[in-house]
Amino acid sequence: MEPAPSPQEKYHLITRNLQEVLGEDKLMGILKERELRIYWGTATTGKPHVAYFVPMSKIADFLKAGCEVTILFADLHAYLDNMKAPWELLELRTRYYENVIKAMLESIGVPLEKLKFVRGTDYQLSKEYTLDVYRLSSVVTQHDAKKAGAEVVKQVEHPLLSGLLYPGLQALDEEYLKVDAQFGGVDQRKIFTFAEKYLPSLGYAKRIHLMNPMVPGLTGSKMSSSEEDSKIDLLDRKEDVKKKLRKAFCEPGNVENNGVLSFIKHVLFPLKAEFVVLREEKWGGNKTYTAYEALEKDFAEQVVHPGDLKNSVEVALNKLLDPIREKFNSPELKKLSLAAYPKAKPAEKGTKNSEPDNAVIPSQLDIRVGRVISVEKHPDADSLYVERIDVGEAEPRTVVSGLVQFVPREELQDRLVVLLCNMKPKAMRGVESRGMVLCASSLGEPRQVELLEPPAGCCAGERVYVEGYEDGDPEDELKPKKKVFEKLQADFCISEDCVAQWKQRNFLTKLGTVSCKSLKGGSIG
Predict the structure, then answer these.
(1) Rounded to an integer, what is the distance from CA 34 to the centroid of its chain?
(2) pTM
(3) Which of 64, 236, 399, 429 could connect to 381 by a Cys-Cys bridge, CB 3.0–4.6 Å?
(4) Does residue 147 share a domain with residue 29?
């Protein structure tokens, strides 16, 4: 038998690769006396994807450090968060999460018998817990509750009261699960500090909080269940994994917001303590890295090519996914998967979201946030700019736009814009354009044009969608004869609040609305 790790070794295992720890001294004090009791919770909403391997990898670290680990399937939270999980699907989705999370843990070699699994509704509907919710609501301000949930609870124009309850329930979970610490992503930080502020007011101890960094998705932004291109599903076929990795943002030499590198750092290295870059002999052959820093350095210096990195991650990832796919190939779990996440049925005629069978819908458009890397005058057309725009792909896109008389070149440089990405490439005075920068235009004369502006904090490649049309895959390329964009554009407009809309539904990113500076009532094109 291996000797038990020392408190210092346990501390290292528990905190490695974390972004932040609140309560470090308390953590070390407990480790010197006994094993740490910790929990990780997941709301049973959208289908788990490969980013869930990041907390799974840390759970493996916690077990190696001798921690007593509880996994909470937060079913009630899933309903409270703007009803992301409808009540009638709550039980089915919780069962799906239980099966898929256990399959993930088994695929990375975590012994399930060392873990405790709990559902939120096992204790959150008790008399004692409910009374504590009321006690907490009598001391928490609306401002603090809203602020605490800002990074986690879905933000909508008219929020429900349930979203204000969410942070308080998560704080109380620490007491009712009888843990020393809670583990989560750094997006949970405001809820964690909320718990530290308010639990003592009920006579309960302040807990330790451990935070993982937010791992970029394949587009360079946060990996999200609601953004199809940003994630790889746990049950995706091998050919789908290859396709998504091929499109992933992995610019040569760029180590910032690189989802491929981040997955290696936070999942593959902690699990295997090494990573093998697979290469043909003519390019130097395979190379084994035993330290992530060495791999990142070689990638930054372009010793490692993005194509080789993606191919190597594909092989390693499929090894993790194979046992999960095999488990979910059983008739019982196939049935559960379909029942928990049924395909959306078309709305009945006459209802608010009803569309004729042959109607075009906004989700057919591939609209993304882009960052303008360079702007030059078109060599053969004084009214045109030639821009290179980063939209989260391996290489920036070349886009030609007629903005010379409306937007000064220096205002475009390094600016975030909104780009339609699935128009058929078109030669414009000899330069092929692979997208359209979307702008607001005044209806009267003289004509005024303003760029559509994504919310502050967006990353290049983030999806822009129309409210109510978050789901559905955009077409790979719009067919000019079908005039999909032109038909939708007829109902594009700028609201009185300067928000971009389609049929009075807002253009959104995950951070908020898309707007323009001042052209109320304008058109969009």
Answers:
(1) 36
(2) 0.64
(3) 429
(4) yes
- What confidence category does residue 153 fall into, taking pLDDT thresholds of 50, 70 and 90? confident
Q: What is the DSSP letter of 268?
A: I
Cα dihedral value 458, 155, 452, 476, nearest 10: 70
Q: Which of 66, 71, 7, 2 is nearest to 33 (CA)?
A: 7
User: What's the total number of domains in the chain?
Assistant: 3
Q: Is the dihedral of CA 182, 187, 191, 195 positive or negative?
A: positive
Q: Report residue 516 CA to chain centroid gap.
A: 25
Q: Using an 8 Å Cβ cutoff, are 396 and 389 in contact? A: yes
One-letter amino acid for residue 237 of the chain: R
Question: pLDDT, tens digit, for every residue of 373-427?
Answer: 999 999 998 999 999 999 988 899 999 999 999 999 999 999 999 999 999 999 9
Within a domain: 345: no
Could you tell me if residue 252 is inside a domain? yes
Closest of 224, 234, 229 to residue 154, by C-alpha: 224
Q: Which structural domain range is residue 430 located in?
A: 362-524
Residues 405 and 482 in one domain: yes
> Is the distance from CB of 168 to CB of 133 less than 8 angstroms?
yes
Counting residues of the chain whose pLDDT is more than 90, the rounded percentage is 63
**pLDDT (tens digit, 9 = 90+) per residue, 27-40?**
999 999 999 999 99
CA atoms within 13 A on the CB side of 233: 15
CATH number, domain containing residue 331? 1.10.240.10
- Distance (Å, whole) CA 62 – CA 58: 6
Domain shared by 250 and 330, yes or no: yes
